[in-house]
Design brief:
The protein has 310 residues and is of the alpha+beta class. It has 2 domains: 135 residues, no CATH class; 135 residues, Alpha-Beta Complex (Nucleoside Triphosphate Pyrophosphohydrolase), CATH 3.90.79. It has 6 helices and 15 strands. The strands form 3 sheets. Strands 1, 2, 3, 4, 5 and 6 form a 6-stranded mixed β-sheet that branches. Strands 10, 11, 12, 13, 14 and 15 form a 6-stranded mixed β-sheet that branches. Strand 8 and strand 9 form a beta hairpin. Helix 5 crosses helix 6. It is globular, with a radius of gyration of 22 Å. The protein binds zinc ion. Zinc ion (ZN) binds next to loops.
Length: 310
């Protein structure tokens, strides 16, 4: 695999071969779901199962262990590693696998947003796939066209409407979000939302809208949120962000104006921060007065890339 900045981002580097050509082989899938070598990760209420305390690992199970617990839940084929098939199994939300059943005491169901900070990157990436797929099923039980129940097909990679008059097919979502570090000379534009921890500033971000290019979305968001005009836009890297189904598209953007005007909605503050201050902040110097998100956030990687360019 060739190295790109995307490979450094958290949730990148999934080591599984997604083997999409196998998704419609029902007999093969059924056989693999009971084969002794197969590995299964349960997902419950958007949380994947992990083991090991401070540095969690995927809580892979062998077939059969959670058949009762997962009855009625969705199954997603994650892919192959060598000859071993890997699956995610949904434990329906109305059960409580942390209180009763075969998993009690074996591990816990982790908030992936927290676990990613301390997990092996490849493992976190597999869980991003598992979490996003199971979560998509949970949010799309009914046909968006006619409202009838829909059911999973293709090893979990589509849903089909059960109404014979409709039969609409629905596919897993990936929602593009632009996240951009706007810069002007030796200063970068950072903003903060009310919900951020005190002192934290980050790159601006927003959803790409239908009928819009990445560059147009970057210019619109920076203008809307901070009143700053943007010219040239450079792509940096992407990051899957399964909360619930975003793809973060990281860009560096050249600002062509300087006067900040907040929209008063998304940001509670925005400011220009010089490169030297950001470099000190990234090095952990508290006297910098601000800090940026941790390295599992693509905003961190954008700031890092720009600081290193200087
Ligand atoms: Zn329908």
């Amino acid at each position: 695999m060739s190295h790109s900045p995307s490979a450094d981002n958290a949730f990148a580097g999934n080591p599984l071969d997604r083997a999409s050509h196998l998704r419609n082989r029902a007999d093969w899938l059924a056989e693999r779901l009971t084969a002794p070598a197969t590995l299964i990760v349960p997902v419950w209420r958007t949380r994947p199962f992990v083991t090991g305390g401070r540095r969690p690992e995927i809580g892979w199970l062998r077939p059969g262990v959670i058949d009762d617990l997962a009855a009625g839940g969705e199954t997603v084929f994650l892919g192959m590693h060598g000859d071993v098939a890997h699956f995610a199994l949904e434990i329906p939300a109305d059960r409580d696998p942390e209180k009763t059943g075969p998993l009690v005491g074996l591990g816990n169901f982790a908030d992936l947003r927290q676990a990613v900070a301390v997990m092996d990157p490849g493992e976190a990436s597999i869980l991003a796939q598992a979490k996003a797929m199971i979560d998509w099923h949970a949010r799309h039980r009914f046909c968006a066209v006619c409202g009838a129940p829909s059911e999973a097909r293709s090893a979990g990679y589509s849903r089909t409407c059960t109404s014979q008059a409709c039969k609409a097919e629905h596919f897993p979502r990936t929602d593009p979000v632009v996240i951009m570090l706007a810069t002007r000379g030796d200063k970068a534009l950072l903003g903060r939302q009310k919900m951020f921890p005190p002192g934290m500033y980050s790159a601006l971000a927003g959803f790409v809208e239908p009928g819009e290019t990445i560059e147009e979305a970057v210019r619109r968001e920076v203008k809307e949120e901070a009143g700053i005009e943007v010219g040239a836009v450079r792509y940096h890297s992407t990051q899957p962000w399964p909360f619930p189904s975003s793809l973060m598209i990281g860009c560096l953007a050249e600002a062509t104006s300087e006067v900040i005007e907040l929209d008063g909605e998304e940001l509670e503050d925005a400011r220009w921060v010089d490169r030297e201050t950001l470099a000190r902040s990234m090095a952990g110097d508290r006297s910098a007065g601000i800090f940026v998100p941790p390295s599992f956030a693509i905003a961190h990687m954008l700031v890092k890339a720009w600081v290193e360019e200087g």
